[in-house]
Give the backbone structure.
Amino acid sequence: MNCANAVLVKNLVKTFNHQEVIKNCSMTIPYGKIYGLLGANGAGKTTLMKVLIGLLKPTAGEIQVLGVDISSENKEYLSKIGSLIETPVFYSNLTVEENLSVHCSYLNKNYKEKISETLDLVGVPGIEKRNIKELSLGMKQRLAIGRSLLCEPELLILDEPINGVDPKGIIEIRNLLFKLNQERNITILISSHIINEIEKIADVVGIMQEGQFIAEISKEEFQHTDFNLENYFVEVLLKNSFERRPKK
Ligand code: ATP
């Protein structure tokens, strides 16, 4: 067991209908770090995240999350993970408070008193009685981040959390994630197609292509003045595609 890492993935393979969408993939996320995940559409980012939170069963590989082998019977680690995967789903006929209460009851703990505090934290204060149907996309996204925090997570897994959020909201969510990371020591895995945002927030950036990690780069490297993460991302993708092209 490696206790220095909140996430340890070794030789992960995930197949759908005999097709490998994650191919022998390895990565680690040390405790307390913010790991940014970049990759083109279909690279395997969501699939990797779903495996980490037990929504998908790995085909092969060794995975430890918060020090626990995810194939073991011990599923307690799941209660320490907050997640937002793909488009957040809510009961559209229920209010915000009712939705969050349902979530609290899944958690089997009394976090109900935390609801209004959490809504304040994610920048949608006082919307407890609003119906989900009345909320904008960005408000639902903030609410989903709030929902992921109700379990007081040690690890946050956020799949494109700033989708549909306005520029002011993006800044607020960035600051919130920094705060959660620095004050509560929450480890964060975040994916986004907004490279500029990942560049601002991540300590380490991993780039996936066709189910594999093709590059990993640290903040010290990508925040160097001569470095441009967007150019690097495009170059790495092109180089890898070229190297993988079928030889004549
Ligand atoms: P995006 O940036 O578009 O969200 P992604 O990097 O998150 O993409 P995934 O959603 O993980 O990519 O998808 C990786 C590959 O796995 C894609 O080719 C996708 O079509 C395939 N895939 C994902 N889920 C399934 C499924 N349930 N059944 C079959 N194929 C799937």
The mean pLDDT is 92. Residues 104 and 111 are 6 Å apart (CA to CA).
